[in-house]
Design a protein that fits this description.
By secondary structure, the protein is of the alpha+beta class. It has four domains: 9-174, no CATH class; 189-269, no CATH class; 285-293 and 334-511, Ribonuclease H-like superfamily/Ribonuclease H (Nucleotidyltransferase, domain 5), CATH 3.30.420.10; 525-703, no CATH class. The strands form five sheets. It has a five-stranded antiparallel β-sheet. The chain has a five-stranded mixed β-sheet with strand order 10-9-6-11-12, sandwiched between helices. The chain has a four-stranded antiparallel β-sheet with strand order 13-16-17-18. 30% of the residues are buried. GO terms for molecular function: nucleic acid binding.
Amino acid sequence: MFSICISDRFMLLSIPKPGDFSVVGLDTQAVTLQRYPNGEVLVKDATQFALEYANGDIWQTAQAGQELRPSTARHLLALLKPEGRMVTVGEMEDWEKDREELIHARTKQFYGNKYIDQRNFNLDYTKTEDDLAQFMRDNHEEADRLGLGKWIPSATVIRVLVYNRTRHVSLVDCMRKDPAVRARGIWPQWTYTLAHEAIDKVFRRELPSCAEAYKWFEGQFYLERDEGIGIEGKRPNPPTDRVFRTWFNEESKKANLVRLHGTRKVNKSLKGVIKPQDAVRPLQIVIIDQTLGNIWSVVKSRSESLVNRALPRGSTDQDVPSAEEEPKVLTTKRPEIVYAVDVFSRKTLALILTYQAPSIATFMACLKMVMTPKIEWMRRYPDLPDATAGHGPPETVVLDNLRVHVTDSVQLGLLAMNIAIEYAALASPEWKSIVERAIGTVKRVMAVLPGGFSIDDKRTNSSDHQKYARLDLEEIDELVTHKIITEHHMKPHGGTNEPPGRRFVCGVEKYGRGALRDLRQLDLMLRRRKIGATLTRNGVDFKGHHFHDEGLASRLLEEFSAKTKGKVGYPVSLKITILWKPGDCSSVGVMGPGGKTAVELRNTDPLFSNTPVSFEFALAAKKANAKIFELKYPPEVRAKYLREYFERLEQLLPKQTHKAGKTTARLLEGGRAIVIPPDVRRFDITIPVTNLGVSNVDIEIAYAAEEGREQPITPKRRGPKAKSKPAEPKSPAPEWEPLPSQPSYVFSSAAESEAFLDRLEAEMAATRH
């Protein structure tokens, strides 16, 4: 009851994966179909094909040689319901709208094909409109069974649809006629249809670019013209490349761009972006960022007996194991990367690996490394002076909008050193694109190390690589630093076309570099702040520790004498601001007058005075050894039990879960030296001032209060100058008469002098009352 031709298109709905198929083979026994455009081949029995066609499981979508408009192709996709977790509510609403139009066209196709079959059977037309309407009402029950709804088209619609047709109509014939994409103009209408098809091929990713689409369009134009379609008095030459590109730009709307590039990329391109930072000299802008590393690191036992080498050894300790012995692996964790890059030269100024989340301590440690000469890098790479020379105080520091960065500790500390702060713009990665690209370089180095995984493959599961972890933080830092210095700093950068190392050195020679007056002050300023602590003549009590220095305490009380509380002759106290580091309980800083100078008070406990352990570790160790940590025991004995506490933590850590082991790992790492380059850890002992031969200069901490910045002197306010008046004429100076000459008292002998004095005394006695 229906005819099939080669290249006809059918939608098969009864197979496991429904789709659009094209007829590639045909005989009296079977129909050979191929998934459009070049998919699998399916062979169906002719009788089975006819039954499925009659039951509505096969729909004819297009006939051979019939072109599918973009709107038609979109409606045909509505035959299949979108599935998946990424389907949005808006996409489902669009699908329901297209589905309604598709059901409308399918209803017209059903009644039109029924009418064609009835006409071929009776060999005549239905005579009147009423007869045709009754014919459709008789077939409505079958249409309702196929799910075509309650709508019945009018007789006029069906007559127009089947006019001059002997074969069944397709869905394309029954679709609503959209207005032409191109209005009729100087070219024939088929020229605009070809142009739209060529442009749509680009958005369907069948052609790579607009230039390739024009080549295809030009070839098809001459083919259609030469086959005799004709131009009917229109322009015989095809549109130029410029005209075609104009048409392409008109069609480059958001809906088409989403098909080509994806929703995220299109939304990003259609939104205003902020311009990234730009600098004209070294250290003008330094960006600091912290992110989670793409590598699993191991926490290793430093040794079996001497866990923390900063602690003094006792006679009861065993010998330290040899370096050839493999340390014991306690647990594995992903480290955090704290990175600082110079905007002008794209040079790495600091790289720190830590287990701490973004905090003031990690930021301060990174900024300290930015200002510290890289002596360790120079020692490892003596023949690369440009790649290892990079330090100095920055003019502006760019930070994330984290809560730990928007604090008084950060803002007041940088303000005291004349460093400006600039917070990154929200929801604009382009603002920090320089540091993001630099961190990407570091992550690609980590990806090839044991325990590392790729950041480019989104399907990577990071937990699958945890079992390959072999390196600790110091080993990872050594390998990553080697790659950065030997390659990243020595090869031309894509953003500047110059090697970062050479560009930084040349910029410093041209523009100069700032200098810090006292690196000890830097160490004190870059700490957390505690406001409202109490200072007495006995020092400061803070977090269970006592900090004191007799000379500095007396000086502070004298300088703050106007603010001290207490009667004269009695003990006094003072509310001060304390500067402290969570990872080091050996000392605290105290702000001096004006808030721009600080002095250091050491821990009075001899064990913690020179031991780099955190406040949390010291508190936990005191609780574990409550009877041992008393002042009557010598430091050697207490250090022994402190090492035993290390060992207990190391034995406990492998038995804990990953979530519970986080706290224990941070506690264990808090009792060790900070895992950052050695230059930052020891610069406060030996300060290399310059590379011109002057080095190893030790600045006494007592000078900090005297050599700090002086208080600013406000100039006296003076009113505006009064308007000047003409000077009055001066009166002539009076002429004084000369005084009468006085007698000269010159005596030739002592007797004459005595006689003169007696006479004066007699005259004075006569004039007394």
